[in-house]
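Schema walk-through. Below, the input block comes first and the output block second. Nothing else is stored per chain. Lengths vary across the set, and this one has 204 residues.
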Amino acid sequence: MWAELIEREADDGWGFILQGRVNEIGYQSITSPMTLRAFDTALRRWGTRSLAELLQPAIAWCEDGFLVRPHVSEFWHQPPHAGRAGNIGIVTRFPATRKIYTRDGHPYAVGELLRNHDLAHTYRRIAEHGADDFYSGEIAARIVLDMQEHGGLLSMDDLAACVPEENPPLWGTYRGYAIATNNPPGGGIQLLEMLNILEHFDLR
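--- output ---
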């Protein structure tokens, strides 16, 4: 869909630079949000606490705020990499993000307090109504309406289709131990290769 917008390959070879940076910044760059569903699924199967309980500290951080630390400010002000857009443009380009991350049009400085009341409200609703509200309930409806109003790509069907994909782990061995790790594109295969190399050395 963006073939005519390609300007060049990214300098590091990972992806492409498009006119208007539509694949990096803005509504068309937003992909299906899977993280909440994955966390909720894991908690239901193996957790000892509820999602609602675990969201409480995050709600407090959003409402009470946190001091902007040097590494946060450095992340915002990192220079563009490999021809891609800089993080500062993502933080300041849209009214919704400017409302959260800036004061008088400038990102909060180190030591200033950043609050995110909108995110706190969303977390509270998820805590009360569950993750399904995000994928098929009121939050989902608000997401889709916002997408439609701003040329985004996500639909209700996309949100409803957000379910974890399960795969067997990648298995290897190290000095007689069976090692289970993650499949590509995760780093499990490199981990197993390194361990197998180290088997040839006395590491005591």
